[in-house]
Amino acid sequence: MPSLLDLPLELLGLIVKETIPVDFEAIALSCKDLFAASTPFRAQYATRRKRFRDFTFSQKVEEILEVAEESESGESWDEITRETGIRITTTRGLLEQIALDHSLAQYIQSVDLRDHEDEEEDGYEDEELSDPLEAEVPEILKNLVLTSPFIQAFKGDPDDWIEGIQRSTVYADVFLLTLLSQVRTVALHPRWDELHPFDDNNLANKHLWPVLELIMHRANHVQEFPDAPLSKLSVVEPSRDSGYEEKSPLTPFVPFMAINSVSEVSLTSCLLIDDGYTGIPFNPLVECYSTNLRKLSLEMSVAGPEELSQLLSRIPNLEIFEFSHQTKWHGCGFNWNVGAFLDIVQNICAENLKTLSVTIFTCWGNIGATLVDMTRFRKLAVLELDIDTLCNPPYDPSTGYINWDESESVPGSPAWPKLTEMLPASIETLNLYLNTFSDNHLKCITHLIDGLSDDRATKLSRLNKLSLFVRMDSGPTIPDVALEALNAAKMSGFSIMELGKSVPLI
Predict the structure, then answer these.
(1) Which residue pairs, CB below 8 angstroms and at least 24 apart, start in 21-29?
(2) Fewer CB within 10 Å: C terminus or N terminus of the chain?
(3) Would you say residue 245 lies in a domain?
(4) What is the pLDDT at residue 67?
C-alpha cells in the first residue's frame, strides 16, 4: 500500500508547510522523514511562535546601556521584541502583520491587549493628511476587512470598519477577535468598556455588537462552524487595575461568559449596580452563561443585590466565586450590606459552590449585617472572610437587602457567631483576615473560636486548615491588647500569619 512517506522530500515539505502553525510540531516530531521535511520552516516557526503564541505588545524598557540592545533611535525594547525583531505596539499594528500573513493569527493562544500604545498620545490625530484613510491604512489590511465574513454577514460598510480600526482601539480589538480561532486566554483593553449594547446614540455599538454576538454564536456551534474564532477560549483575564477612579460596566464582558468553552472569568474594578448616580446598570443579555464556567472573580468591584442575583443565577455550575468590594468614584458602593450579599450567594450557589472569598478592599461607609448561618452550602470547602464582616448584628432575611446610611448603625446587638454553628460541615479550609486591632475585632475572634477545640471533631470534621492573616500596618510587633485573642486562636488550631508573608506571626 502506498505510504505518505514514499513521496519525495520536496512534496513532504509542501505537506508539512500546510500544517503551520497549529499542527506543525506534532507532524515534525512524528518521524525522521517528516522532521527532515520540516527543516526549512523550523527557524521561522520558532521566531513566530515566540512572538505570537503568548502575545503582548512591545514595550520600551530601561536597561543598562552596556546590556541593552538599542535600536537606531536609541530606544530599548522588551526581550521578546529584541529577540524576534518584530515590534508591535497597537492592535492595528497586529492586524497589519496578520494581513501580510494570515497564518500569524493561528499562532496566538493567549493575547493581552491591555498595554496598547495610545495613538492619540503619539500625535497621529494631529497630522494633516489629505486622505488619512488612504495614507494610514495599508491596502492589504483594507482587503482583510473587505473579505471578512463577519462584516459581510451584516452587510456592514467596510469603509466604516476601516475608519473605525484606524481611529478606535475597540473597533480594532473586535475585528482582531474575529481572526483568533486558537486563542485560549484573553485580556482586553480598558477601553472595552466603551461597548454599550443598548446605547442607540453610540453608532459604534450598532456596528460592533452584531459582530460580537455572531462571534459568540459561532463559537458555541463548532460543528456547524469549525475553527470558529474564540471557540477554544477558556480564560478571560482582568482588563483594568484597582483604584477609586477605575471602573468598568460588566455587560460588555457578557459575550465571553456566554461562550461554552470559557471556564474562568477574572475581572477587576467592575460596577454592576444601578444606584441612580455613579453606578452602572447591568444587563445580563442572555438567559444562561457557559455551563463550563467554574470560576468567577470580581476584585475591587461593586455589585448590587438584583444585579448579583441576575449574574449568579446564569452560571449553573459555578464552583469558585471571589469578590472584593471597593468604594468607587463619587462614593459608589460607599455602604454595603455584606450579610445580604453572602445570603444571595448562598441562596443561588448552595448546591455547587466549593470556594468562596468575600473581602473588603475599601468601604467608606456601613458594611451592613453579619450572616450567621452558612450551613446551607452543600459542597463549600474553602471560605475566606474579613473579620470586619462578622462583627455586626445578625442579618435578617425577612428585611431583604437594606443599605444603612453611613451615619446609621445596623439595629441590634452584634451577632458574635461561633464557627461551629456558622460553617457548613463540608468546610476544609478557613482563612480569616484581621485588618485592625480594635476591641470589636478582637472580641469577634474570641467568640468565633468559642467551643472550636471541643466541637471541631464532631461538627467540622473536615476542617483541617485554619489561618488568621493579620495586617501589621501599625508596626512590627503585635500590641499587647491583641496577644490574648491571637494566642487563643492559635490554641484553637489557627495559624497566625502576617498578611503578605509566609512566616507565622506567633
Answers:
(1) 21/45, 21/48, 21/49, 21/103, 21/106, 21/107, 22/106, 22/182
(2) N
(3) no
(4) 47
Let me know if 263 is exposed, middle or buried by CB neighbors in 10 A (0-12, 13-18, 19+). middle
Give me the domain span that covers residue 26: 1-46
Q: Same domain, yes or no, for 74 and 178?
A: yes
Question: What is the per-residue pLDDT for 1?
Answer: 42
In a domain, 481, yes or no: yes
Extract the C-alpha cell encoding 464.
483541617
Same domain, 149 and 98: yes
80 and 174: one domain? yes
User: What is the Cα 413 distance to its own chain's centre?
Assistant: 38
Last residue of a domain, one of 46, 66, 82: 46
The C-alpha atoms of residue 181 and residue 27 are separated, in whole angstroms, by 20
Q: What is the pLDDT of residue 3?
A: 60
Q: Is 462 helix (H, G, I), strand (E, B) or coil?
A: coil
Residue 144, φ and ψ in degrees, nearest 5: -65, -40
- For residue 280, tell me if it sits in a domain: no
Q: pLDDT per residue over 91-124, tens digit each?
A: 999 999 999 999 999 999 999 999 887 644 343 3
Of 179, 13, 16, 25, the residue nearest 103 (C-alpha): 179
- The C-alpha atoms of residue 195 and residue 48 are separated, in whole angstroms, by 32
Residue 427 · residue 380 · CB < 8 Å: yes
pLDDT along the chain (506 residues), means of 10: 59 68 72 70 86 96 54 74 95 95 96 78 39 61 93 84 89 96 97 78 76 95 96 97 93 96 97 92 95 98 97 98 95 92 98 97 90 98 97 89 73 94 98 95 97 95 97 85 95 95 86
Q: What DSSP designation does 370 have? A: B
110 and 8 inside one domain: no
What is the predicted pLDDT for the residue at 132?
A: 39
Distance CA 153, CA 472 (A): 58
Q: Model pTM? A: 0.90
The verdict on 8 and 90 lying in the same domain is no
Count of structural domains, the chain: 3
Phi and psi torsions of 403, nearest 5°: -105, 110
Residues 283 and 317: beta-carbon distance below 8 Å: no
Question: What is the C-alpha to C-alpha distance for residues 217 and 133, in angstroms, rounded to an integer?
Answer: 31
Same-domain pairing of 89 and 23: no
Residues 6+ apart with CB under 8 A from 242: 268, 269, 299, 300, 326, 361
Q: Record the cell numbers describing residue 231, joined without a space.
A: 471557540
Q: What is the pLDDT of residue 407?
A: 65
pLDDT of res. 136: 67
pLDDT at 299: 97
Say if 105 falls within a structural domain: yes
pLDDT at 119: 47
CA 40 to chain centre: 40
Regarding whether 132 and 36 lie in a shared domain, the answer is no
Q: Is-contact 251 283, C-beta < 8 A?
A: yes
Q: What share of the chain is helix, strand, coil (3-state, %, to 5)?
A: 40, 15, 50
